[in-house]
Amino acid sequence: MDGARDGDARRELVQGLTKACSRHFGRAVRIDGLFRHSGGASRQTWGFDAIFDDGSVEKLVLRRDPPRAADAPPQSLENSLAIDRATEFAVMRAAGLHGVPAPQMLFIAQPGDGVGDGYVMRSVGGTAIARELLRAPRFEQARGKITTQLGTILATLHSVPLAALPKLRVGTAESVIATMRRALDVTGEPHPVFELALSWLERRMPPAPAAPGFVHGDFRTGNYLVDESGVTAILDWEIAHLGDPLEDLGWLCVKSWRFGAIDRPAGGFGSREELWDAYEAAGGARVDRDHARWWEILGTARWGVICMTQAWKHLSGAEESMELASIGRRAVETEFDLLELLG
Amino acid sequence: MAQDRPTAPELLDAISGFLRSEALPALEGIDARLAFQVKVALNSLAILGREWQRGPRADAEELQRLKALLGRDGDLPTLNAELCRQLRAGERDERDAALMDHLRATIAEKIAIANPRWR
Q: Which of A332, A335, A341, A342 to mutate to test binding with chain B, by most B CBs within 10 Å of its CB?
């Protein structure tokens, strides 16, 4: 992005946030310390301070899709599974009220604010940076607790009553496989290992749950905040849907989220058994071990296909981004893992 | 006609050296997002360096294996598309030892280029 345009966009964003926050808090607000969090090319996260007349300060976070140009290319296939910001806001608020650690949700931006499709929430302490969580000495105590905490949190998350949630799409095992095949066809790059894995998975598909449950959809290391005491908030709810809750337990254990701690499947922190035990102890349904493993293998293939579709966003011209382009070369990591898992 | 030096890998090294010892230190502590992007760029340049060294031979060997496996002639995209069709249709699966040997050899080369530290 060129520097001058960047500066204009930033001034516009400060103006928009000033207007939106003043309306929400019902008094004059000054916006300061605006910075963009790394990661997330299409969906942006900005931190900022709202400063009031009496000098008090609220640390806030804006999550948004930037305003799109009228002639922008259509959204990619993978984006079509994501919920919009207003729905994400409602999902996070419902989960938080039900006892899932989530940021306190404040308000949805209005179209006239000029900040795009987004919402504002209170900032939560902690970091989501996996390599830090897995290695920094200050997280030593937290590391011992995270697996149990995540299992407990997932049990709570899966018990959020559907009536408390906005309408969400149903994503079954079958539909995930179909979506992945479609994505492979769209990119047009033949990937025998993904085809092998999807056929393998299709032949061993677990039965669908009697009624679809609430699924976070992207519950993994990197998508929750941790401080010295452990997990402080679950983030990145944009793939939330209804389906088989085992999907979340499997996804968390995909090797790609262990960030090198490959002998600790539960997000790089503990064993699968510790995770499943904590989940069951906190009131989650009994975990069928084979089915949880099935979802882990599906998740491995799914991350590989997502790597391809991320690169495709750049290659198709939908979103120019070196970062997205480079993710394409990560797909092979999951091909390597799949051959170990299937062979 | 051969290009003048620097060769492609030498030029990649020069760009990486600049990004690592000049651009990155100037950005660290100033703009975390841009510093991260420079690290992404460095990683991609390293991939290109390895691809330059190993890519042509890896592709040639993959093509030979595919021709033997499928018993027909063609280029890499065509033969890989045919293998994918067979796998999706269930005409081959993980019990096919020749298939699995081919895939292991192919992925071993791909990962050696894309991320040799992956295990």
A: A332
**Residue A99 pLDDT:** 97
Give the pLDDT score at A76. Answer: 52
pTM of the model: 0.93
Residue A260 buriedness (CB in 10 A; 0-12 / 13-18 / 19+): middle
Please give the C-alpha separations between residue B26 and each of A269, B20, B34, in angstroms, as whole numbers. 34, 10, 10
Phi, psi at B43, each rounded to 5°: -65, -40
Do A196 and B110 count as a contact with CB atoms less than 8 A apart?
A: no
pLDDT band at A9 (very low <50, low <70, confident <90, very high): confident
Write down the residue that tokens 């309408």 correspond to.
Answer: A167
Long-range CB pairs of B74-83 (<8 Å, 24+ gap) are B77/A190, B80/A190, B80/A192, B81/A190, B83/A190, B83/A192, B83/A195
**Is the separation of the CB atoms in A324 and B37 below 8 Å?**
no
Alpha-carbon gap: A323 to the closest alpha carbon of chain B (Å): 7
Chain B positions touching A39 (Cβ under 8 A) are 36
**Contact criterion met (CB < 8 Å) for A332 and B114:** yes
Question: What would the pLDDT profile of A172-190 be if each residue is shown by its tens digit?
Answer: 999 999 999 999 999 989 9
The percent of residues in chain A predicted with pLDDT above 70, rounded, is: 93
A132 compared with A69, residue with greater pLDDT: A132
End-to-end Cα, chain B, rounded Å: 40
* Residues of B whose CB is below 8 A from A325: 44
B88 with A199: Cβ contact below 8 A: yes
On the CB side of A220, CA atoms within 13 Å amount to: 20
Residues 6+ apart with CB under 8 A from A188: none
CA A231 to chain centre: 15
User: What DSSP character marks residue A11?
Assistant: H
Rg, chain B, Cα only: 20
Q: Which of A184, A203, A339 sits opposite B107 (nearest CB)?
A: A339
Q: Is the peptide bond before B6 cis (omega within 30 degrees of 0)?
A: yes
A330: contact with B, CB 8 A cutoff: yes
Structure tokens that stand for A161 in this block: 């009553």
Distances (CA, A) of A139 to A127, A130, A131, A229: 10, 11, 11, 8
Please, how many CA atoms are within 13 Å of residue A138, restricted to the half-sphere of its CB? 7
Disruptive mutation site among A6, A127, A199, A203 for chain B (greatest number of B CBs within 10 Å): A199
> What's the pLDDT score for residue A1?
44
